[in-house]
């Protein structure tokens, strides 16, 4: 394939090796305002029907009309908003009464942490500590149209904390009650039965736990035109059969669920807390856990408390109830947060801990190892007319282990047109408003000032993306310092294994076939755009800090390497069998578990959130049944 030379930008030449050492907000505030998202852009309200009939509340216009506030508020988002539930409080409200203790202390009110806390609270006293604020009242979280704004918000109170892996790929981790479910693209799809078997989970309990989540916060989408075109294009390109609307992971093409309802209103894992027992549940926001405290007097170190900092920087200690058959500290701080906290607490490779003068509680060389991220590459396809905004609704599951999904719509919402999305935002790439060689701080500022005046046509188009399942390329996480607010260094080594690259090429070739089908061509006039042109457009649309080559579209392999971005499905760092056992107990210590995406060797399903939430519920029920038998009554 002969292609024109791709461009390289001044910005992409910034040394990723230096950047990853950045604790963005504190050390490089000027840089942090330039970090941003990848390719899922700008959905709009679509009419979705629910997995169960909509409630009266959903049928009113109330929520929709509430969202029409001033655009500037949306750009900033909202900081600490009034929690919906009385048991959710600011961390500063914590005062340790002598003798007060908890059966379970859960660190991280995210995708796994919320269903876990709700479930355990049925029988036990639970303290849930979340470093972020409330999702309620923040329309950058609640409104599907504003998906990208949270990711663009790099302020210290943003629900999304940007980080850059040492590979040079811009990434994000959640920092809000509800975790990843508050900032993600909402697609909901289960893991395959073989995944469940490989995890040694109890199939029956798994089959009870998914519906527990689904009946509370999952909906069926009303398929948007771009998603319908992908569905039909996939089938015509041979990714068949069509499996209809299903949560199940089946080869072929399907429409999955979503946590956005028919008004484009996001439902999150935080909503699952409503299923808990309010008398037993205490949720603290802006409670940043610094470390786990161990009693090291006995045969094995035992977790007995955690230290956390409140929103005013004051330190507190929350303690576990003592006694036989007692509870645990449970880390559900996500694939970055959980290994980071183990390391900060003295569990990890001895040599690394000693370098940072962290007292060693337990040497375990596997903590932070085996980190993976499913690499994503996407093709940008301009369209004849603006296409309705959409996030993921359709997926093609190929036998090669490549998943094909799509997003569309770059016509800005009235909120988002006002916002500065940073020089690395996909829309700048799509627009090519700033020629790559001229991308600079000043150019980005000028762009941000003038953005509202740009013609809407410039935002027309959609992405078809592919991600590979279970990458064989793995990396690691290590601490840069002892500050828990500062993201650790993470390396994913994208495409270091040749089979991953082979699968990426297969994915891009499949997309090429889909682009040529009449279903996509109808919207795009794709005949006008040979694949070479689309690849070149896509080089600009997918911005990362990976060093560029002048021939990065000369081969699909080079395109895969140079345009790799993330679909945010990173996982690992606390693998089962290496850091935790099959009950998710940290090996070698007592009173400590890890229950979240950091325990996965592979990301479940095509997209993980369904299984992470299921896992929270599943483990909650399992623990209750183990401790109480029939009396658990769950
Ligand atoms: P999280 O949900 O991140 O929870 C960890 C929580 O712990 C966070 O709330 C964090 O603030 C808190 N925490 C961390 N450290 C501390 C500490 N020291 N003290 C106190 N609290 C702490 N998946 C899908 O299935 N479908 C999608 O469409 C999809 N799109 C995505 C788009 C984006 C932008 C992102 C970021 C992710 C997406 N994902 C999607 C992935 C999915 O959302 C995540 O895999 C999942 O949410 C991870 O869950 P978790 O429980 O492991 O971590």
From TrEMBL:
FAD binds at residues 130-131, 176, 289, 568-569, 597, 608-609. The keyword Zinc does not apply. Disulfide bonds join 504-560. One of its GO terms (molecular function) is flavin adenine dinucleotide binding. It comes from the Eukaryota. Its cofactor is FAD. Residues 174-197, 334-348 form the Glucose-methanol-choline oxidoreductase N-terminal domain. Keywords: Disulfide bond, FAD, Flavoprotein, Signal. Belongs to the GMC oxidoreductase family. This is GMC oxidoreductase. It comes from Musa troglodytarum. The lineage of its organism: Eukaryota, Viridiplantae, Streptophyta, Embryophyta, Tracheophyta.
């Amino acid at each position: 394939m002969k292609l024109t030379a791709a461009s390289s930008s001044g910005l992409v030449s910034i040394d990723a090796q230096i950047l990853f050492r950045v604790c963005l907000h504190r050390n490089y505030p000027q840089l942090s305002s330039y970090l941003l998202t990848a390719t899922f852009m700008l959905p709009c309200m679509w009419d979705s029907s629910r997995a169960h009939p909509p409630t009266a509340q959903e049928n009113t216009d109330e929520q929709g009309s509430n969202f029409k506030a001033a655009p500037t508020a949306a750009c900033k988002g909202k900081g600490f908003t009034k929690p919906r539930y009385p048991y959710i409080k600011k961390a500063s409200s914590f005062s340790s009464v002598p003798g007060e203790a908890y059966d379970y202390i859960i660190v991280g009110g995210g995708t796994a942490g919320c269903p876990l806390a709700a479930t355990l609270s049925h029988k036990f006293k639970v303290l849930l500590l979340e470093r972020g604020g409330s999702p309620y009242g923040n329309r950058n979280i609640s409104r599907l149209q504003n998906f990208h704004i949270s990711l663009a918000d790099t302020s210290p109170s943003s629900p999304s904390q940007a980080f850059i892996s040492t590979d040079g790929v811009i990434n994000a981790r959640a920092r809000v009650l509800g975790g990843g479910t508050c900032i993600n693209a909402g697609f909901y799809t289960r893991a395959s039965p073989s995944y469940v078997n490989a995890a040694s989970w109890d199939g029956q309990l798994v089959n009870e736990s998914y519906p527990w989540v689904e009946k509370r916060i999952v909906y069926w989408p009303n398929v948007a035109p771009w998603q319908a075109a992908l569905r039909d294009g996939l089938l015509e390109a041979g990714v068949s059969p069509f499996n209809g609307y299903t949560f199940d992971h089946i080869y072929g093409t399907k429409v999955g669920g979503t946590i956005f309802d028919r008004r484009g209103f996001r439902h999150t894992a935080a909503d699952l807390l409503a299923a808990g027992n309010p008398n037993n549940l205490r949720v603290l926001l802006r409670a940043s856990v610094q470390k786990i405290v161990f009693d090291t007097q006995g045969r094995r170190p035992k977790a007995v408390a955690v230290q956390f900092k409140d929103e005013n920087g004051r330190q507190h200690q929350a303690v576990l109830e003592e006694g036989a058959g007692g509870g645990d500290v449970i880390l559900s701080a996500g694939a970055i947060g959980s290994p980071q906290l183990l390391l900060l607490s003295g569990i990890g490779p001895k040599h690394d801990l000693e370098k940072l003068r962290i007292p060693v509680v337990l040497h375990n060389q596997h903590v932070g190892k085996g980190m993976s991220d499913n690499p994503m590459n996407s093709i940008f396809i301009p369209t004849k007319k603006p296409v309705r905004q959409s996030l993921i609704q359709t997926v093609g599951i190929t036998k090669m282990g490549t998943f094909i999904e799509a997003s569309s719509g770059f016509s800005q919402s009235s909120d988002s047109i006002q916002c500065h999305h940073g020089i690395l935002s996909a829309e700048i790439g799509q627009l090519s408003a700033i020629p790559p060689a001229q991308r600079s701080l000043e150019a980005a500022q000028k762009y941000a000032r003038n953005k509202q005046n740009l013609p809407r046509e410039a935002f027309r188009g959609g992405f078809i993306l592919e991600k590979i399942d279970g990458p064989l390329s793995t990396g690691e996480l290590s601490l840069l310092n002892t500050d828990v607010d500062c993201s650790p260094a993470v390396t994913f080594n994208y495409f270091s294994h040749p089979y991953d690259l082979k699968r990426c090429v297969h994915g891009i070739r499949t997309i090429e076939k889909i682009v040529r089908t009449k279903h996509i061509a109808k919207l795009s006039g794709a005949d006008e755009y040979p694949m070479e042109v689309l690849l070149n457009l896509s080089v600009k649309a997918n911005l990362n800090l990976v060093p560029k080559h002048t021939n990065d579209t000369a081969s699909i392999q080079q395109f895969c390497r140079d345009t790799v971005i993330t679909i945010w499905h990173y996982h690992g760092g606390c693998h089962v069998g290496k850091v935790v056992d099959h009950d998710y107990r940290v090996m070698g210590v007592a009173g400590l578990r890890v229950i979240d995406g950091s325990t996965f060797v592979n990301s479940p399903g095509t997209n993980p959130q369904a299984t992470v939430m299921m896992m929270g519920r599943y483990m909650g029920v399992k623990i209750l049944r183990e401790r109480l038998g029939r009396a658990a009554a769950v």
